[in-house]
Design goal:
Blueprint lengths: L5 H5 L9 H20 L17 H21 L2 H5 L1 E5 L5 E5 H25 L9 H8 L2
Antiparallel strand pairs: 1-2
Helix pairs in contact: 2-3, 2-5
Length: 144
């Protein structure tokens, strides 16, 4: 996002969410929500923050860094037993659902992949060279 004009990042593209920014922030919110839920922390306000709160790439990056830090903290404490444990939670209609923690983590990944693919398609529609970095390359870059 940093390489393209902010106007392009925030323009309404008629996708699952209005703009590239909104799609990306939504995927961050989904990760943040589930990691906080799994951590036993409050999820209050995660989905309540308006996308317009993110006024530039730096504000989006700050939120992404915050979510990544919380995710890394949670994962660093997760044991094999915890990964296989059943997590019980309520959904919007008040019903109780149960999933293994591993399945919830896979859901987070699936949500991220879905929306990143959507963003890449929007880049292509705008004839913008879509950035690509493999997960393994990302990990190599963050290890230094």
């Amino acid at each position: 996002m940093a390489e393209i004009p902010w106007k392009t990042v925030t323009e309404n593209v008629g996708a699952s969410f209005d703009s590239i920014r909104d799609i990306f922030v939504h995927s961050l919110q989904a990760e943040h929500f589930w990691i906080r839920r799994l951590s036993g922390k409050s999820t209050e306000g995660i989905y309540g923050a308006p996308y317009e709160k993110y006024v530039d790439v730096n504000s989006v990056r700050e939120y992404a860094d915050k979510v990544e830090a919380e995710t890394n903290e949670y994962l660093s404490k997760l044991t094999d037993q915890g990964l296989r444990s059943v997590f019980e939670y309520k959904v919007r209609d008040g019903s109780v659902k149960r999933n293994e923690t591993e399945d919830i983590l896979m859901h987070i990944i699936e949500e991220e992949i879905h929306h990143r693919g959507e963003i890449l398609c929007i880049y292509w529609q705008h004839e913008i060279e879509a950035p690509y970095i493999s997960y393994t390359q990302y990990k190599l870059q963050t290890m230094h």
